Amino acid sequence: MARTVVVTGSTSGIGLGIAEGFAKAGDNLVINGFGSEEAINQAVESVGSLGEGSVIYHPADMTKPDEIADLIATADQTFGGLDVLVNNAGVQHVSAIEDFPPEKWDQIIAINLTSSFHTIHNAVPLMKKAGHGRIINLVSAHGLVASPFKSAYVAAKHGMMGLTKTVALELARHNITVNAICPGYVLTPLVQKQIPDTAKARGLTEEQVKTDVLLAAQPTKQFVTVEQIAAAALYLASDAASQVTGTHISIDGGWTAQ
């Protein structure tokens, strides 16, 4: 039977890859995120072509609690419940703490942390009513370790780890699991676009940028793929993972082993 899956921030990158993974499994999807109307329509069509399930788009702004509540309500009204919630929406800003714009701090905490409180807050009653559910938080290696100049992002991701564990404990007797996936660097289109400029700025080849700059922290010197992250999400959503809760799966090429 097709599950209903909500993936925030899923019009591109990691979120889109996760949505594609669930679509291939035959599930119904609610995708969400920013982009041009053309790009969004293309994402809906592309995801919808991968399986037997239905795909709809919801434009909820992850800084607005009312819109987030409507995202979850729309999934319930359209598909009759919510089985899997994947919190993936995120933004980044890199700056020294004394130069960090306060409005950027507020935006990152809102989108990368607080939005997940609101999605979970609205999803849990539906999952409790159904007697089952899976909540998967896309965190990052930065939920476990820090890097300089990313104060808001690292704070938000550490907060996500705390949220994951707390909600898992609250829901442990309700057949609802809550887990985190902590990827290292993923070669998304966003990262790919930065490579030529970084190479030029630093006087390096594009290959050197990949291994010596972007992958400096990853012992394997290889990027994580969106397909690998999607596979982890599908596992956490499966019956096989019913006793996996309140923990994380690191997919980081050995980064956090150091």
Automatic annotation (TrEMBL):
One GO term (biological process): monocarboxylic acid metabolic process
Keyword Oxidoreductase included in the entry's annotation: yes
Name this protein carries in UniProt: 3-hydroxybutyrate dehydrogenase
Keywords: Oxidoreductase
Coiled-coil boundaries: none
Similarity comment: Belongs to the short-chain dehydrogenases/reductases (SDR) family.
InterPro entries: 3-OHbutyrate_DH (IPR011294), NAD(P)-bd_dom_sf (IPR036291), Sc_DH/Rdtase_CS (IPR020904), SDR (IPR050259), SDR_fam (IPR002347)
Any one Gene Ontology molecular-function term assigned to this protein's record: 3-hydroxybutyrate dehydrogenase activity
PROSITE patterns per record: ADH_SHORT
Enzyme Commission number: 1.1.1.30
Protein's UniProt keywords contain Oxidoreductase: yes
